[in-house]
Amino acid sequence: MWNVLDATDRPIVAGIDGRPESEAALHWAVAAARARRTSLRVVLVADASELQRYVPYRPDVHGETFMVPARPHRHPSDDDLDRAVAIARLRLPPGAVTGRRAPGAAAAALIEDSADAAMLVVGTRRRGPLAAAALGSVSATVAVHARCPVVVVGAEPPESGAGLPVVAGIADDRAADGVLDFAFREASVRRVPLTVIHAGRADPGLAPGLANHAARYRDVRVTAHLSGDGAAETLTAASAGAQLVVVGSRRRGRVAGLVLGSVGRQLLHEAGCPVAVVHPARARTPRRTVVRPAEAPL
User: Fold this and answer.
1) Residue 190, domain extent
2) pLDDT tens digits for range 172-221
3) Same domain flag for 12 and 97
């Protein structure tokens, strides 16, 4: 197993809340940390209420049953965090996993944690019109405002996707370079092909950028397609045969390009694989250096 000293100085952050969709996100984040040879920080966002759980207690087999506080001085969600960290430590080196419980609003806590992250992974409910109508407000808000790339993973456990390509969706906007940078790297570390789908009219200005990235990642076999169909439909269809779809947003505070409005909602909730949202100037992975965990292991 790789040594933690070989990892990057920015961890992958997995945002969890104890629900099935966040467990799927945790497993995806662990696999990503292994592939990138980087550390993982598990952040549990939960109700800040300190209401105590109670459990039944019978001092004598024939006596009366009492309800007593369960594990005093612990928040009810601490068990979920301990379990998540234990799962991650089964597959990552000692010292590569840290964890913490973030009080307060979930979206705000995860956005704060994204400041020093290489990638933030969150879960969302899929699929169908009810899920789309009730878009996971946390995952949607984080995807727009996070300070690093965000990967949104569906509630259903994703298939291994071994050998399936990474798909990058680009349009005529400033996010194209960041999307390509992130997508090429993911394809490289996963050792799979990359499919680039350009939605919209042909743009000669995108060709040099694609060629530059292909020259940097010579180990990645890349194919490019121009799609005249709707971006959401094209990318959703492509996701059925992909292990990751990468799209971009132009700037913080406003989602644009291929994740604008209904396009983003359809893709995030109907994609057949995880979706990565990349912001300009925050796509590149930092240089390799010694890991300095933000917090001591639990």
Assistant:
1) 161-286
2) 666 788 899 999 999 999 999 999 998 777 677 788 889 999 999 999 99
3) yes
